[in-house]
Amino acid sequence: MNNLKRSVFSLCLVSSMVLSTSAAELNLADEPLFLGISTDPNVFFQLDDSGSMDWEILTAPYYHHCSYDRYAGGKDSSSDCASSVKDDGLWRQYYSGYRTYEYMYKNSDNAYSTGCTSGDRKAVFDCGVSTMFDRDWRGGSSDFNVVYYNPAAAYKPWAGTGLVNANFKAARSDPQPAIAAVSAVAETDSTVAVPAQSARSQPSGYSLKRDLTGFVYYVWIDSHGFESSDGHPRRGTNINRTVGKNNWVDLWDNHYKYTVNASSVSWEKIEWDIDSSSGKLTKKVTDSGTLSGADTDPNIVPARTVSEIQQNVANWYSYARRRSFVAKGAVGAVVSGSPSFRFGQTVINYYNTLFNEVPPSTVTKYSGYNQSLLNDLYSFNWPAQGTPLRRGLERAGKYIAGDLSGKTDPIIQSCQQNFAVLFTDGYWNGSSPTLSINDRDKDGRNNTVSDIALYFYDHDLDKSIANNVVPNVADPAEYQHMVTFPVAFGVTGKLKDTDTPPDGWPNPVLTSSDKWGDNPYDDDIGKIDDLWHAAFNSKGEYVAAQTPQDVVDSLTAALSEITSRDAASASVATSTGQISSSTAVFQAQFNSGDWSGRLYSYPLNSDDSVNTLNPNWQASGILDLQNYDTGRNIVSYNGSKGVKFRFPSNYQSPTSDELTSAQVAELLQLSSYYQSTTNSAEISQVQAYGEKITNYLRGERSNEGVSAGELRPRASVLGDIVDSDPKYVSKPNFYYPDSLETVSYASFRTSKASRSPMVYVGANDGMLHGFRASDGQELLAYVPSTVFDNLHKLADKNYFHRFFVNGAPTVVDAFYSNAWHTVLAGSLGRGGQGIFALDVTNPDSFSENLASSIVLWEFDDTDDADMGYSYSEPSIAKMANGSWAAVFGNGYNNTEADGNASTTGHGVLYIVDLASGSVVKKIDTGVGTSATPNGLSTPALVDIDNDYVVDYIYAGDIYGNMWKMDVSSSSVTDWDVAWVSGTSKKPLFTAASGQPITTRPAVGLHAEEDGQVVYFGTGKYIEKDDNNSLGEPTQGFYAIWDKNESNAAGLPVVVGDLLEQEIEKEFKATLGTNSFNIRQTSDNVIDWSKHEGWYMELVNQGVTPLDNLGERQVAESLLRNGRIIFPTNLPSAAPCTPGGTSWLMELDAVDGGRLDESPFDLNNDGVFSEKDYTYNLNNVDDLPASGIQSDEGIISTPGVLRDTGREVKYLSGSTGAIVNFGESTGAQNVGRQSWRELD
């Protein structure tokens, strides 16, 4: 290896004095890529197609109307009547005989024939509805009859089919039209697979139309109860009515009656008088009214006009009035809302008629298969059959196990999860399972549903493949098994979950072998509790849903837990540059199941490792305790200045100190009413909703839940933190000379020496957060205006992850307005096309009232259309024109059709005034097209003469060019690409095809000649396909000599001009008790008269380039003490090995060869010596390692702390762990560094 004539100097990268070829628009990922090439879970619906599922009545447990009314027809008496609870879901009355009602309408497409005479199955609306509801109004209330029309619900056509709203005057009994035959379509890059589908005729109910004029419904008021000591209501002379709620829908409760007419809705409030001597009940109308036109009812939320009520009623009739319709709608909503799951379905009776297997292994885009599945389901007519639920669950288990004749084994990967969703409305019967299951759970009851669920959970369903199912706390099994999710619609057992909040399991706590409720062979109630037992036995979740929306929300919430995984991506930050007893390491993590985030402050152990078992604090837990209204300072930007992030006091006319009307419109995307409404009641509702969602985003939790009208439940207020590196900021600690500006920097340092240290980090809850470093208290949050168009999605219960504030902040002391300030500049990454700047000089004074002084500006694609998604992190520095500026590349996908699309697709560099955000200079590279847009990545700003003023800027682009911009002139008009000839601009270097540059380069003085050396790697890890690990272009790491010559001859430098170094060997080395995967690299000699730098391909020598495992360099490199240090990323090639891995490489910065001494203390003896060497390829000479592989997934740029005689590098792994390596310091006489100490 060459002896250095001059040490490699790491130039002052004044922008970042902190530690820390496109074919078309990039297909940017909306989730962290290192979560892996997932194997999508199998979710198999086993639907109850018994005759009861066709019924239109499903009552909650109740007491018969004769229990309250002594004059119940046929049961007139002053004595008690029917003191037991009715809990079989049917509605019964005494009137000239005993009557049971299963249907509301006597339609000819009912599975059971209906009539109005004795012995017939009765239908309410066609057998004297006025008489029926006069005797017992409760059948017309959704609180009593859970499938009846619920005015608080929003009824819509079934999802995923293109079905339309029903017609109030001609509502169809069944909405599904005929379906034409479809030929099979194979999946390609440009097509979605579609299975062959035979033609389906329309169901008979499609032609049955009903005019719903005169439709009646009731709204319950829980106004009265009965003496609890009696245990049930009593009538006549024993009448025991009490005043106040009791959570039973009692006959004598107050209620509203609504009648939906042709052009109006009339309503009455009804109360009851009781003759205390006889117990006679007398109804009385205490209030009434009529709605017409745009009138809305203030008693109902959401308020609707007459036409909206009619539409909602019509949709209920056509899409939700039958129990089976609820099942169809729920399956449709879940399938449409979970596009990454492999869905299949069948029924428990007519399974030969309806059986959709999950998509075959050749299909990865499921929309075509999902559409076919829903077409089959929506066209299926429920038969008049029993409920062989046990045989149905057994059939689902056999299918998952690959043991069902004529069906393809659905398990395609060893890590695949498998779920059966068992949907039923009642009580199982029929034959026992065909397998010898018996009393599987040892509870003394044979062949129950819970026994079957346990059988298919504790059996390895595919012994031919490895046991790689990812375990979790709820389900530790690694073998292939089936988890059962029973959905019991509208029915309840005896067991209750009395925890606050509910934990999903009964109290007292039961085990698998305990008896769960009554024996299911003795009574039907026991069969409901058996379903709960089945969920417990199979590590599933029990969904006891009382409304159609409950089914969708609860099942969606349950399935969302399937892909939950803790992980980390961002780099760590450290509180000091030197290890001491007070040193803290800050790490961000997230959970992919609920997309919650965590920020930890960890102390160090005595051996310099991170004490992750005893954190100093964890920010999300602290933030959850801060009051959303009075305990947080949250600010935003309204296009002209900083404002409080609060909903305007009058959204129709916000002031200049509030959010704008456009921002209000974005927040109201999920509101039930339009922002433009002129109806006073609706205006109040809109105002209330706006405050509700804004407060939710601020951290208010009371409106979270899975019921209709509630907002997405969150595990914590803090959202996931993925790519935003935490930034630690304490007292001012730059080393600017006092002569740099007209006001002394030293005085600024002194005046701010005692301010609270802070940690700033961006999160995908829509905010940049500022936490006090001492205790984790949030002192500031900022909501960029650029993310407003997606903020409402955070409150949507069907939320799918997307990025918001996903870029790392930069914090620098800067001078403007005749004073020193500490300025934070932030980017959004995939979260948006914008940059923002905040004044964070005085964290102890943060207040929403100071929003206009905290927020400096925002810059987005409305300011310049060439601005793309801001993957380029901003840098802050003083420019040669005397002003301070924020400098950033334009990022990616600037041609996206968002109303502000670039017409050129060029990669450009922005230099904007730090105080105002106005563009000082836009430097256009001229490279890129509208069809294949380019984009400039994070720049490095270089000061070569030590005057703390930027001279040159280096930045790479997606096309693989490394650009140099010359900004050394005091005249802004002279700032441009360094090599310009007419309209032609030349980069310093152009990489091989398929080698994009997406990270900030490191820059150092040349060791032996004039000029600088620019260090950078190639590759990207931002597109959905970037997890591919085979057949990818080989990436590299480059060091390019910039000679500072004005002559562009010979430019750009290409690979052929460079010295090649190679990765010669990868192997496992064991030193003492420590084992590592290490790399040894070549040590070829560079000749600066011939070479323009050096490079290393990121592939092991002798490996076919296309088998390079997709290795790339996408985290920033560090230039320290004559070494270039960089992590690489190898994405996972196997679906069952999520995440991937990384190598930490350390090379000689001069020529890229291996170092003369080991940089790693491999034997952990605290000494860097030949004892840390490993054998070379021929097992002859001991050689130092040049790279060490991560055991904790993909690692990020290390944080570095100095210790006596060594350095310790701390790296955050994608598994969530923190890796630390003790390393030698290398040469020390290296001048000014590209990193700064953190005091």
What does this structure look like?
There is one protein chain. With 1239 residues, this protein is an alpha+beta fold. Among the domains are: 42-54 and 322-566, Rossmann fold (3-Layer(aba) Sandwich); 65-156 and 208-293, no CATH class; 634-698, no CATH class. Helices cover 12% and strands 25% of the residues. It has 14 helices and 60 strands. An eleven-stranded mixed beta sheet has the order 1-46-47-48-51-49-50-57-54-53-52, with no helix packed on it. Strands 2, 39, 40, 41, 42 and 45 form a six-stranded antiparallel beta sheet that branches. Helix 3 packs parallel to helix 8, helix 5 (389-400) packs parallel to helix 6 and helix 6 packs parallel to helix 7 (524-537). It is elongated. It starts with 8 loop residues before the first strand and ends in a 16-residue tail after the last strand.
CATH superfamily of the domain at 42-54 and 322-566: von Willebrand factor, type A domain
CATH topology of the domain at 42-54 and 322-566: Rossmann fold
Give the low-confidence spans: 1-23, 1227-1239
Name given to the CATH architecture of the domain at 42-54 and 322-566 = 3-Layer(aba) Sandwich
Rg, nearest Å? 35 Å
The pLDDT mean sits at 88
Query: What strand order characterises the main sheet?
Result: 1-46-47-48-51-49-50-57-54-53-52
The proportion of strand residues reads 15-25%
| CA-based shape | elongated
Strand count: 60
Estimated helix fraction: 10-25%
CATH C-level category of the domain at 42-54 and 322-566: Alpha Beta
Number of helices: 14
